[in-house]
Amino acid sequence: MHATREALLHRLSSGDKELSGEELAGSLGISRTAVWKHVHALQAEGLDIRAERGRGYRLYDDVLVASLLAERLAGLRIGSRCMLMPEVDSTNSELMRLATEEGGFAPDGTVLLAERQTRGRGRLQRNWLTTAQHSLAMSVLLRPPLAPTEVAQLPLLTAVAVQQALADLGPLRIKWPNDILCEGRKLAGILTEMRAEPGAVHAVVIGIGINVRAPEGGWPEALGNIAGDLSSVAGREVCRMDVATAVLRRLDALYNEYLAHGFEPIREAWWQAHAACGQSVRVHNGTTYIDGIAEALDTDGALLLRTSGGVQRIIAGDLELREKQ
Ligand code: BT5
Predict the structure, then answer these.
(1) Does the structure show a pLDDT above 70 at 324?
(2) Which of 26, 83, 210, 224 falls 20 to 30 Å from 140 in CA-CA distance?
């Protein structure tokens, strides 16, 4: 985006009141006429910026601004570089390319957000729906000092970060392995990918998709009974920049705690937030259904399931809650 327009959006997104043409001109180092021209250009791009006579300009859209996010995450590892793209295939794929392709420059802590994903991905080749202006699609690059086997702990840590960061909005629970639910509806999902060779991890990309508002016109039929959104849960309009900031700050704090103290405190927090501790569940592991009681989370993220034949370790799959939450 044009640098002055990004700076203008940064200023307009920072507060919740009108800013006069004079204030904006002063802080951006341009004339009031130039402010007016840039506002017009942004309006022509479809942004809802209104000029109130005698008071100034106000932004009514929930806009993502990379420089504002970087400012809010200043000094943290996560957000050391923040990028926003209007459209990508998948923020995970794009960030992995930026991290690993020849000349790949993206440093540890890089955050990539996109307004639209043309091939948003879930686990196991599934699709993830991102709706422009209503969803958050973001990926975080880490270059962790971990063994490849320990990387499986990072999506669990991320689920805890999302659950804790947004807990004020409603009673959010984690569903193994990486869903964030509220009253049985999925509000967010996490997809972690890595490039490694035996003994060395080069790049881990953690993708987080969050439904901040439902799509206009409602969810597509396939998601109608599954998906939920934060604004409905909170009973008010939730702002995407605030959600992104809260989640990434919490992720940064938990990741530092994890590097300093290991997985145990994270595992405990994860288990406390899990929707089915000690409850009856059914797991589909790709080939069969296994019924049992969710008994614990193993250190590598496997779910320990007490079945009629003893405790089974479930490494991957989908979990169905058998009891009402
Ligand atoms: C996930 O997979 O939940 C991981 C989703 C990760 C998405 C982020 S967005 C940023 C980054 N870039 C990417 O390309 N991906 C990451 P899984 O557990 O496999 O769940 C996928 C299933 O969730 C689908 O098969 C649908 O049933 C359902 N689903 C798809 N879109 C959804 C949505 N927006 N809200 C709720 N459920 C959805």
Answers:
(1) no
(2) 224
Structure tokens at 7: 């700076």
Ligand 1 pocket, residue 190 CB under 6 Å = yes
Rounded to the nearest angstrom, the distance between the alpha carbon of 190 and the centre of ligand 1 is 7
**Amino acid in the structure at residue 94:** E
Q: How far apart are the C-alpha atoms of 281 and 290, rounded to whole Å?
A: 8
Over its C-alpha atoms, the chain yields an Rg (Å, rounded) of 21
What pLDDT does 325 receive? Answer: 46
**pLDDT score, position 70:** 95
Assess whether the C-beta atom of 231 lies below 6 angstroms from ligand 1. no
Confidence of residue 323 (pLDDT cuts 50, 70, 90): low
Q: Give the span between the Cα atoms of 52 and 119, in whole angstroms.
A: 40
Distance 7 CA to ligand 1 centre (A): 32
180 closest CA partner among 196, 167, 168: 167
Q: Which tens digit of pLDDT belongs to each residue from 293-319?
A: 999 999 988 999 999 999 999 998 999
Which domains are delineated in the chain? 3-59 (1.10.10.10), 66-272 (3.30.930.10), 276-321 (2.30.30.100)
Ligand 1 centroid–CA 52 distance in Å is 40
Pairing relation of β-strands 280-284 and 289-297?
antiparallel
Residue 319's alpha-carbon distances to 189, 191, 222, 260, 291, in angstroms, are 14, 16, 18, 31, 10
